[in-house]
Amino acid sequence: MAEAAEVATVHGAVYDWETFKLLENTIVEVNSTPPQSQVAKYGLYSFDLPMGIYILKASYYENGELASYREEMLNITDGGDYLLDMLLLPAYPESNLNDSDLPEIPTLIEEENPLPGNNGSKSTIFLIVAGSLLIAGAIVFLVLKKKQSSQKAYLETSLYETEYSGSENTTDDGVSLPQDLQQVVNIIKANGGRITQRELRNKIHYSEAKVSLMISDLENRGIVEKYKKGRGNIIVLKYAEHQNI
């Protein structure tokens, strides 16, 4: 890799291939010199890299086993800002695959001298090509749509990390909260003291990345607790200490 004075910022988001949700705690690696890696705690990552050609790898683990994976090549030609989102696909261990598990694939190549009227192979090839083009078009559409969403999420997250969205309010027990965090607490209280992260996001209409940051902020303040349930999270208000918030 060629050395250069200019340094580029490479950032993006990692998504689940099935739900298109941000994958928290994904490990993102890049083969820079020296190699760099980070845990994308909220599904977002960022690297500063000089000019060169790099391979970025994203690995998501469940119960200690690799569940999904993505590898992308990136060519940095000058300094600036590079956005690279990754849609992680399921990872299948090679040991679980053998020849007996693979379906038989019919031969689609016609004989050199086909029999008159044998047009079945041509029709099959046409259908396969047309289907492949439709699938590729759908994938491109979804990726472009998610890139727009990730750009919005990245901006919201950056703004949240530097300043709160509103002035702080002082609660009955002396706890000082910004307006957006107070809104989250009010929603949880109105929902009986507990709510799923998905329901919370639907009620406040923020990006998933910002909602995750707000919940983490409330956890650090000792106001809520987050519990993992399946592939989602349940947010519980600590009534004993903060029932008057």
What do the pLDDT scores average to?
78
Structural class: alpha+beta
Query: Based on CA inertia axes, which overall geometry fits?
Result: globular
CATH class category name of the domain at 7-93 = Mainly Beta
CATH superfamily of the domain at 7-93: Carboxypeptidase-like, regulatory domain
Query: CATH topology of the domain at 7-93, what is it called?
Result: Immunoglobulin-like
User: Helix-strand pattern, N to C?
Assistant: EEEEEEEEHEEHEHHEEH
Strand content: 25-35%
**Gyration radius, in Å:** 24 Å
Q: Report the biggest beta sheet as strand number plus sense, adding barrel if it closes.
A: 8 strands, mixed
Structure report:
With 245 residues, the chain is α+β, with helices and mostly antiparallel strands. Among the domains are: 87 residues, Sandwich (Immunoglobulin-like), CATH 2.60.40.1120; 75 residues, Winged helix-like DNA-binding domain superfamily/Winged helix DNA-binding domain (Arc Repressor Mutant, subunit A), CATH 1.10.10. It is 33% helix and 33% strand. Strands 1, 2, 3, 4, 5, 6, 7 and 8 form an eight-stranded mixed sheet that branches. The longest helix has 43 residues. About 4% of the residues have low confidence.
In short:
It comes from Methanomethylovorans hollandica (strain DSM 15978 / NBRC 107637 / DMS1). The chain is built from five helices and 13 strands. The protein is an alpha+beta fold and 245 residues long.
